[in-house]
Specification:
Layout (H helix, E strand, L loop, with lengths): L6 H9 L2 E7 L5 E7 L1 E3 L2 E7 L3 H8 L2 E6 L6 E9 L3 H14 L4 H15 L2 E8 L6 H4 L2
Length: about 140
């Protein structure tokens, strides 16, 4: 059985343009950045540069905390993973981004993301909620 997002988080994800993603250094130091998001089949997806700090932290550990919509928005603890060799999902996220961020994707961002995924300088990331959802690690407890 897969873990589902809490109802408050699911509702927020359905409307959100951004998530605030917290990843952790090996010593546990948090770093938070805003990123676009796509809710698809019980997971949150986004793209990032493969060499970015968040991608490197995710590849190393995968533990993340996500706040939806704003820095103090509904939160969940999750496990993030790099998604390789899924051109179907890459195409689907670009289509979803075109619908959601219609003002930027047609201008230049769609081509930037598509070219990065094709060249493997960017990567698709999937976040699944953890069974014990919450943001205790990010809060320092």
């Amino acid at each position: 059985m897969t873990t589902q997002f809490p109802a408050e988080v699911s509702a927020a994800l359905a409307e959100a343009s951004y998530i605030y993603l917290t990843t952790y250094s090996p010593s546990g130091k948090p770093g938070t950045v805003p990123t676009w998001c796509w809710l698809h089949e019980g997971a949150v997806y986004f793209t990032t540069k493969r060499a970015s700090l968040k991608a490197r932290r995710i590849a190393r550990d995968g533990h993340v905390t996500v706040h939806v919509g704003r820095k103090d928005g509904p939160a969940f603890a999750g496990h993030a993973a790099l998604v390789e060799d899924r051109p179907d999902l890459e195409t689907a996220i670009l289509e979803a981004y075109r619908r959601k961020y219609w003002f930027l994707i047609p201008l230049w961002m769609g081509r930037y993301i598509k070219n990065g995924l094709r060249a493997r300088t960017s990567v698709l990331v999937r976040i699944l909620p953890q069974a014990s959802s919450g943001a205790s690690r990010a809060a320092g407890t």
